[in-house]
Each structure stands twice: as C-alpha cells, then as structure tokens.
Design goal:
90 residues, mainly alpha
Amino acid sequence: MFGLDLVITEAEIENDMSFVGPGYGIPTDAAVEATRLFARTEGVVLDPIYTGKAAAGMIAHIRAGRYRPEDVLVFVHTGGAPAIFSWPML
C-alpha cells in the first residue's frame, strides 16, 4: 500500500504480555505514565488501556536499552482516544 520494500516475518513479531497488568480494562501505573508522557511531550492522546499499555511497553524497552539510538521505532496508535475521558487520574 505504501510502496515500501519491506517484509516483516512472523518470527520478527513479539507479543510481550508483561505489560497487560492485572486484567482487561484495568489501567496500569506504567500505562498512565506513558499516556501522560505522550500528551506532554508529543501532543498525542492515548487511552490508558490499549495504546497506553503498548506505549508503556515500548518506553520500558527503550529505557532498558533494548534499542540502539540509530534504531527506528514505529508506534502504531490504534485509537481509543475517547476512552481518555473515562479515567479521572489522567
């Protein structure tokens, strides 16, 4: 669709469940932190459940040194912004 010469294999995709937290629909402290960080520094509104947890995972991996400075990361924001209004802690 974008005309990119790029192939991603199934072996290159990792599902890290350690950022899900206590369960479905329950925000984690890391997700709340990520939601606030994205809003403050990038002007991007995440919800504290799906995209917030995904961002928390990405941030944790960056902080842990999993990626080199020259690596390119792509964060796919899948929506959920209306849910932000359901969480008073944000």
